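Quick question, first post here. What does this chain look like in 3D?
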Amino acid sequence: MNQARGKLIMNKKIKQSTSSSSRSKWENTKIHIINNKWLYIMTLPGLLYFLIFKYAPMYGVIIAFKDYVPFLGIHGSKWVGLQNFHDFFINPDFMRIMGNTLILSFLSIVISFPAPIILAILLNELSKAIYKRVIQTMVYVPHFLSWAIVVSITAILFSVNGGIITEIVRMLTGREINFLSDPNWFRPMIILQGIWKEIGWGTIIFLAALAGVDQEQYEAAIMDGAGRFRRVWHITLPAIRSTIVIMLILKVGSILTSGFDQIYLMTNALNRSVADVFDTYVYMMGITQGAYSYSTAVGLFKSVVGIILVLSTNKLAKAFGESGFY
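> Answer (accepted):
Ran it through. Tokens below.
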């Protein structure tokens, strides 16, 4: 009897302690919010931005499953289910657009993605700070130029009518190459433009990661006789490995997003066979031809594939022992 009574008292105390601890957690949360109220207030514009411009428009995705007619509205338009997706998959343009997009994305991951990492490592190896600051400033500037300006500069340099680079190639090889219209040169031009414009901006994250590396590790490696390459391989790269993995996950997630502005401005009638990608195709079908439901289905397909790739890459990174994105 006494044992049973003791158990009841013990269970009551456990419940009381649990409820008090839960209340204390809630109270601590309220105290934390009150103490940091200005920080939470500062986050409101960002939250409102995403709610208004990112989440609210997602309601319009429903037209991907309808035969949308603007005069009838979203609710008045006829429901067609997966018909728009079926029409897209059987369209002869599907394989061409998918192939162009994947090739550009593959080249971007293989060539463009490592470029800021290499530049960040090279800048980190500079001993004189003034040289480092000057080079950083020079490579940062192109990021702030619009793609219209970048494409205009490209057109001037590679024009067949007096372009500096075209003239140099003509003098060296004896033949004229139309870089702007030749389909074989479209992808190299896109990759080189992207590297020139974004390589400096991309180094910011990696330089920030390198700033946290303990300098004593380099000093110890020098004392052990390690050369510059060995220090980079055994100290620098492991220090930014987690950052590289996270950035790679984000890059893979946007594998079907090749960028609209740059490709649209570089596209012409002669290179369109290799220039059409998902972004320009959605614009052409949705804006210029008025196929709103069809273009929405294409965009939704691209987004779903991106989400699947992010989740898969993140899971794969965790399988190899990395922290992953989440």
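The mean pLDDT is 83.
The longest strand covers residues 66-67.
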